[in-house]
Every structure is written in structure tokens, then in C-alpha cells.
Amino acid sequence: MLKQRVITAVIMAGLFLAAVAFMSLPWLALIFGILICLGGWEWSRLCGWDAPAIRVLYVLVLAVVLGALYLYCQLGADPQREQVQPFLGLACLWWSLALLWVKGYPGSAVYWRTLAMRNLMGLLVLGSAWMAAVYLLSFPRGGGLIVVMVLIVASADIGAYFTGKTWGRHKLAEAVSPKKTWEGFWGGMACCALLALLLWSQLPNQQAHISLIAVLVVTLTTGLASVVGDLTVSMVKREAGAKDSGSLLPGHGGVLDRLDSLCGAAPVFALGLLLAGW
User: How many angstroms separate the CA atoms of 1 and 241, rounded?
Assistant: First the structure.
């Protein structure tokens, strides 16, 4: 299983880097949109939809949401901060609420277990992540920023895995994800802090006004948001009685199982860059 996971991860990483390096923004927006819609297909099952026609309809609604965001925020041209920032702020507010729900699970499920709420959650999780990612691509060195965001998420995940496996004793959110520990969480945050130091030392000259404190805050909050994203999707899967969101990716489960942390991280990272003065 580990070998299969590594092979799949290497292939995905290679395809991702090639796409960011060689594709234009509209094409990347389309590719990211397809991945998000695949995640929407899997989310529809977690909502409780079984009929393929209803699940296709859910994906179509999600696609319409993505298209509306693309047009309103002018993501394919020159998006203005004033148009995008309110959506990023709402997305971050949503993830703050999700954190409270994760902390309060299973009691908190009374607020969101209904079909309507789970449908809405999917649109918020997936739609805001796609918008934030495409917006990042419009920045100078946007492809590099996307790679940095993925590195932050990977650092939080890898650091948590090895630290938790070695020293993990105290459960982080046992009702949601029994294997995650506080020791693992802090190990992941330590890795993010080390990455922040490296990133700050490599800032281009035109971004020299961004302080080390700002880089640390953006990196750590992005890492934290990635953990919340992972736990939120795990919470919905647990409520739905599903171990994985799907089986499309060998050794990794479904597309949503790979997108969950990124969905939490993307809007927080994008808003953090704006507030830091990028």
C-alpha cells in the first residue's frame, strides 16, 4: 500500500508541476475546475445522494458556481482585489465555523447533518478553494505561489505524520480522526515554521517589504487551515459512514481525499498574501 501511495503521489506531483509550468491561466482554471467537479461528484455521495442523475445535477450546480465566480471576479483577465477579497473573507469565516464543528463533533452534527446543509457545505468547500487557486495564478509568479501553497500543506501533513507516529499520545480530534494527535499537529506546525524561514530568505526584491513575522503568520495559518480542511472532510465522511470519498487514485482513495487539505488552505493562503501586501 505504501509503495502504491508513493507511486501515485510522484505521478500526481509530476503532472501538477508540468501543468503549472506550461499551461496558461484559462487552461489551468479548466483543469482545476475538472478536479473540483470530480471532488463534487464524490461529495454528492457523502451528502446521501445515490441516484447518478442527482449526483450529476449536483456537479452541474457546482460547475455553474465556478463559472459565475470566474465571470464576476474576472479571474481570466485582471481580477481586482475589491472583487475577490470579500469572497476570500467569507471562505475563511466558513472555515472558522468548520473548526468549531470539528471540535464539537459528534454533537455539532445537529447543525449540519441535513441534506441541504451538506450540499451547501460542498459548494462552499470546493467553490471557494477553486476561486482562491485561480486567483493566485493571476498574481506575479502565480504558478510559484501555487507550488508554495502545496509545499506548506505537504509540510504540515508530512511533519504531522512522522512526529505523530514517533511521539503521538494525545488525540487531536478522536471522534473525527482517531489517528491524529496533538504531538503530530505541533510537529506539522514546526515544519511549516521552518519552511517559512526558508521562504522569507528567498523572497524576490520587489517583495522585500514583507516581514518575517508576516511570512510566519501566513504560513502557519495556511498549515492550520489545511488541517481543518482534512478534519472537516473526515467528519463528513464519518457521518456518512464512508472510509474514503472514492477510489479513483490508487493508494489514496478519491480525489476529494487529496483535495481536502488544499481546500482549507487555498482561501486562507490567498487572503493572507493580500493582507501581507503581496
Answer: 22
Give the DSSP letter of residue 170: S
Query: Which residue, among 148, 91, 95, has the nearest Cα to 273 in the 3D structure?
Result: 148
Residue 165 sits in which domain range? 2-276
Number of domains in the chain: 1
**What does the pLDDT look like over 110-159, one tens digit per residue?**
999 999 999 999 999 999 999 999 999 998 889 999 999 999 999 999 99
Q: Which long-range contacts (CB under 8 A, 24 or more apart) does 145-150 make?
A: 145/269, 145/273, 146/20, 147/17, 147/20, 148/199, 149/222, 149/262, 149/265, 149/266, 149/269, 150/16, 150/262
Q: Nearest to residue 46, comparing CAs of 258, 256, 263, 266? A: 256
- Torsion sign over Cα 171, 173, 175, 179: negative
Q: What is the pTM of this model?
A: 0.93
Segment 27-40, tens digit of pLDDT = 999 999 999 999 99
- Cis check: omega of the bond before 106, within 30 degrees of 0: yes
- Residue 133 to residue 153: CA distance in whole angstroms: 14
- Find, among 5, 59, 70, 52, the residue nearest to 35 by Cα: 59
